[in-house]
Design goal:
Order of helices and strands: HHHH
Structural class: mainly alpha
Oligomer: single chain
Number of helices: 4
Shape: globular
Largest sheet: none
Strand content: under 5%
Length: 73
């Protein structure tokens, strides 16, 4: 299973500036982000303490659902 960070890197190339791209770019730049994690709680806890923008946690929750679906295929 690939990490959530790896899943999120697909949003970095978006030309449209949206919350998904903003979160992915922040994760890429944050050297302390748990980049190898596949744990919802580990990533969620990190974001709760270090959220880069107000909607980050809701964006994360939505994207985590997509991540789970993609990883099961």
């Amino acid at each position: 299973m690939r990490s959530f960070y790896h899943y999120m890197m697909r949003f970095r190339g978006n030309k449209q500036q949206d919350h998904e791209k903003e979160l992915a770019d922040w994760m890429f730049e944050d050297h302390s982000f748990p980049k190898q994690s596949t744990s919802y709680h580990e990533v969620s806890d990190y974001l709760e303490w270090n959220a880069p923008f107000p909607e980050a946690l809701s964006v994360f929750d939505r994207l985590w659902e997509s991540y789970q679906v993609d990883e099961k295929e």
